[in-house]
From TrEMBL:
InterPro entries: ADH-like_C, ADH-like_N, ADH_Zn_CS, ER, GroES-like_sf, NAD(P)-bd_dom_sf. The keyword Isomerase does not apply. Its cofactor is Zn(2+). It comes from Bradyrhizobium septentrionale. This is Alcohol dehydrogenase catalytic domain-containing protein. Pfam families: ADH_N, ADH_zinc_N. Keywords: Metal-binding, Oxidoreductase, Zinc. Residues 8-343 form the Enoyl reductase (ER) domain.
Amino acid sequence: MRAIVYQGPGAIAVRDVPPPRLEDPRDALVRVELAGICGTDLHVIAGDFAGIQPGAVIGHEFVGVLTAIGSAVTGFAVGDRVMASDFTACGRCRCCERGDHWECPERAFFGTGTSFGLPLAGAQAEIVRVPHADTTLGRMPKGCSDEAAILLGDNLATGWAAVERSGLLPGEIVAVIGGGTVGQLASLSAQAAGAGAVIVVEPSEGRREFARANGSLAASPQEARELASRVTDGEGVDVVIEAVGGASALTAAFDLVRKRGRIISVGAHAAETWPFPLARSFANELTLGFAIGDSIRLRPRLLSLITTGALDPTVVIDRKIGFAAAPQTYADLKAQRIMKAVIDPRL
């Protein structure tokens, strides 16, 4: 079968690879009808995560049709159209029972090697194996497009998880650092959750314009502090969501947040350490938290928002391709010439 594989730092290729097979009674095989390219995939191909090896199939966002199920899979049948979380979870352990699926000891993150758990081939392929299918997969409902389901599996779940973790109250002011896909969806999530205003902080004018067109205020990093002060009468914003995944962006959050405010980071971090402003955080009673999207837990709530029309995440998708265009599309994403791309293996 065809798939997009990691070749080494900075390089991918479309290759023929052996198709997956059922390896456990709880597995399922999905014929991929749409896959996404995520900012985390850019970290993967850059070599930021040590757990990925050359030849590995990448990608972790997909929807498709079940072509085979293991004997222990009870919630689905061959032929069902399904969406998926970007990682797997057993659904039975203590972590899963309390909704902390990312902390499941059997977690595997599609297409990232051993960087975040057990190794598992990715979804930018014609067929993908899904462990713990009853937990990892969800049935495609009416009123949810394939594109929306792709985003629900990771980017939208991540943006919503940031808002959820922040404890946002209606009317509070939010700043989102980073105007990529996750940042824009965090902004839309905050708006849907009742934020009084959202400021997207982003160096790209094109992405700032996108944020403004979709209900946010926007500022360059140099303008952000002044705008946040103006909107909040000098106090600073109630919540800052860091959606970049770097030390400088996380440090910048402390210049925007009010005293006793909250900072939530959902960017994918690869660095082991970061100089934490301890005395300032103590004096200002700041809260710093981290969140990872969990579409297994959030799927019912987000599907309700999507199918009722309260939230349309698909506005961030600006390119649809076949496999052959993947190398150029990855380059365009890295250069920020596009925001979000999806792959149709049938093209």
